[in-house]
């Protein structure tokens, strides 16, 4: 049976507006067509669009809305939905959004697709988060379930000079639309470096960073910036793909911020497309906040800032990423060689060839990853540091087994109702396919696996092998090598940081 997919108002507006050509919306609709989904709209969407438009524009929009299935008999507001949503509904738009999610809760539609963060929060409060998706999360779902429909692969990110990149590439059209002198600016940067991902020789993702000193002129930013050393995200765009490439670029941004020891990161961005709204949501997830505006024209750019003040947030580690607290608890956890570099690509060993690992896997690009375990020790808490111990192919080799990577626990999920939910929670952030996840769930019926969500933070410059770990008394002997999550003392954790030559710029308190 074809799935009924309810589309949020903003998605309809960006799809049908004659003034905005949004490739990302096109990708979403192509998938919906491929899957023969029934594209639905709520009457409230029709009302909102009619309020925004008048005359010929209103008539043109209504003609386009005829292509969607209107829910002509929307369901009554469920008391449970009302009870959960009322406390966070602070505006008329919020109440309208509650009517949309009410259709999902009452099973009138199968899915809701939205870029509204409050709607996604409501889905979590109602326990229907598995049926309410952002565009990217929906693409992650359908690409995993329908690999035959894929028509491109994400390639690796490379550094290229501006002069090597064709400014005429359609990828840059949105920048040309917003900045009339974009091409001139781009050509003046011919010798400077950008991070680029290409697909079929065309630009698919692009990031330009600039370090600015305390004497930088910020006269067009309001409120005025105080003098600080900053990292500016000059140009940042990632085509929608379902492969979490945006997170890979976020890690590059933070790695540069730490390397250059800046006080803040900032970006100026227009909020005039779904694509940019999605980018803003990603930045906010990692601690960026709206600081003010840039420019004096009616449609001002928004200014988003992320402080690099070396604080630690143990409840939500993304807000203090990528800093490591040396006073937090630390646990050793083993990872097999066959999974190690797949999950932790920056921790590749000298004995491994990069050509063995494809970049077109979302779990490699993600910062937030999943570790699946049946460890006896389940006392794992948000903010804990986890140190990955790569075993030897056939066990715990004296010289071959090494610690390589540090991550920070985001959450632990012990109670998982069924295999379908297990797959949904792990998909795109673990090394396993859906079939492999099902096998892992069924491996021991009376000892189901649990999930540890963690942030991939840092690869140790110097690897410490099992022999050295025993000498340092971090591990007692070869028979005591970790087989699950094993807590170590704070003193031993600090020895690991010192012996692995960990960059002190990442360490706080």
User: How would a textbook summarize the main sheet?
Assistant: 8 strands, mixed
Shape: globular
Helix fraction by DSSP (H/I, runs of at least 4): 25-40%
Question: How much is the average pLDDT?
Answer: 84
Beta-strand portion reads 15-25%
Tally the helices: 18
Secondary-structure class: alpha/beta
Rg, rounded, reads 24 Å
Element layout with pairings:
Layout (H helix, E strand, L loop, with lengths): L3 E4 L1 H8 L6 H12 L3 E4 L1 H10 L2 H11 L3 E2 L8 H7 L6 H14 L5 E3 L3 H10 L5 E2 L1 H11 L11 E5 L11 H6 L3 H7 L4 E7 L2 E11 L8 E2 L7 E9 L6 H15 L4 E6 L4 H12 L3 E6 L6 E7 L16 E2 L4 E6 L1 H7 L18 H4 L2 E6 L11 E6 L11 E12 L5 H8 L7 H9 L7 E16 H6 L14 E3 L1 H10 L7 E2 L1
Parallel strand pairs: 1-2, 1-4, 2-3, 4-5, 10-11, 14-21, 15-17
Antiparallel strand pairs: 6-7, 7-8, 8-10, 9-12, 11-13, 12-13, 15-20, 16-19, 17-18, 18-19
Helix pairs in contact: 3-4, 6-7, 15-16
Structural commentary:
- With 509 residues, the protein is an alpha/beta fold.
- It folds into 3 domains: 4-149, 5'-nuclease (Rossmann fold, 3-Layer(aba) Sandwich); 157-309, Gcn5-related N-acetyltransferase (GNAT) (Aminopeptidase, 3-Layer(aba) Sandwich); 325-508, Roll (ph1033 like fold), CATH 3.10.590.10.
- It contains 18 helices and 21 strands.
- The protein has helices spanning 9-16, 23-34, 43-52, 55-65, 79-85, 92-105, 117-126, 135-145, 173-178, 182-188, 245-259, 274-285, 337-343, 362-365, 419-426, 434-442, 466-471, 490-499, and strands spanning 4-7, 38-41, 69-70, 111-113, 132-133, 157-161, 193-199, 202-212, 221-222, 230-238, 264-269, 289-294, 301-307, 324-325, 330-335, 368-373, 385-390, 402-413, 450-465, 486-488, 507-508.
- It has an 8-stranded mixed beta sheet, covered by helices on one side. The protein has a 6-stranded mixed beta sheet with strand order 16-19-18-17-15-20. A 5-stranded parallel beta sheet has the order 3-2-1-4-5.
- A hairpin with a 2-residue loop joins strand 7 and strand 8.
- It is globular, with a radius of gyration of 24 Å.
- The chain starts with a strand and ends with a strand.
């Amino acid at each position: 049976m074809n799935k009924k997919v309810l589309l949020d108002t903003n998605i309809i507006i960006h799809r049908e507006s004659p003034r905005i050509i949004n490739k990302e919306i096109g990708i979403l609709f192509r998938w919906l067509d491929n899957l023969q989904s029934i594209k639905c709209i709520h009457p409230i969407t029709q009302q909102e669009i009619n309020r925004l438009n008048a005359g010929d524009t209103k008539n043109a929009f209504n003609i386009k809305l005829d292509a969607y299935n209107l829910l002509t008999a929307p369901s009554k507001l469920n008391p449970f939905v009302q009870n959960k949503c009322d406390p966070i509904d602070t505006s008329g738009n919020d109440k309208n959004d509650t009517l949309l999610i009410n259709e999902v809760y009452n099973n009138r539609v199968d899915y809701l697709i939205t870029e509204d963060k409050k709607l996604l929060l409501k889905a979590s409060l109602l326990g229907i988060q598995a049926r309410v998706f952002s565009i990217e999360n929906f693409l992650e779902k359908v690409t995993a379930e329908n690999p035959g429909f894929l028509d491109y692969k994400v390639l690796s990110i490379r550094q290229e000079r501006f002069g090597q990149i064709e400014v005429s590439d359609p990828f840059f059209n949105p920048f040309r639309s917003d900045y009339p002198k974009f091409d001139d600016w781009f050509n003046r940067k011919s010798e400077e470096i950008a991070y680029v991902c290409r697909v079929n020789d065309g630009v698919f993702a692009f990031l330009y960073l600039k370090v600015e000193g305390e004497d930088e002129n910020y006269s067009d930013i309001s409120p005025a910036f105080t003098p600080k050393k900053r990292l500016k995200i000059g140009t940042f765009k990632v085509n929608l793909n379902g492969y979490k490439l945006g997170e890979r670029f976020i890690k590059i941004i933070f790695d540069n911020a730490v390397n250059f020891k800046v006080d803040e990161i900032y970006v100026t961005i227009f909020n005039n497309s779904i694509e940019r709204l999605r980018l803003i949501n990603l930045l906010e997830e990692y601690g960026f906040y709206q600081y003010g505006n840039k420019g004096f024209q009616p449609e001002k750019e928004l200014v988003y800032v992320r402080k690099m003040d070396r604080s630690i947030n143990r409840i939500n580690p993304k807000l203090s990423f990528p800093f490591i607290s040396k006073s937090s608890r630390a646990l050793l956890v083993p990872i097999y060689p066959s999974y190690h570099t797949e999950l932790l690509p920056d921790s590749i060993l000298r004995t491994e060839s990069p050509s063995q690992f494809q970049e077109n896997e979302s779990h490699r690009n993600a910062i937030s990853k999943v570790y699946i375990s049946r460890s006896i020790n389940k006392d794992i808490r948000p903010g804990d540091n986890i140190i990955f111990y790569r075993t030897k192919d056939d066990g715990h080799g004296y010289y071959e087994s090494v610690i390589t990577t540090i991550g920070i626990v985001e959450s632990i999920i012990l109670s998982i109702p069924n295999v379908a939910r297990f797959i949904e929670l792990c998909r795109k952030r673990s090394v396993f396919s859906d079939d492999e996840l099902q096998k892992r769930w069924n491996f021991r019926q009376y000892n189901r696996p649990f999930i540890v969500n963690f942030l991939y933070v840092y690869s140790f410059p110097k690897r410490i092998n099992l022999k050295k770990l025993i000498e340092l008394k971090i591990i007692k002997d070869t028979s005591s090598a970790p087989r699950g999550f094993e807590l170590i003392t704070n003193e031993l954790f600090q020895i690991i940081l010192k012996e692995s030559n960990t960059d002190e710029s990442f360490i706080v308190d």
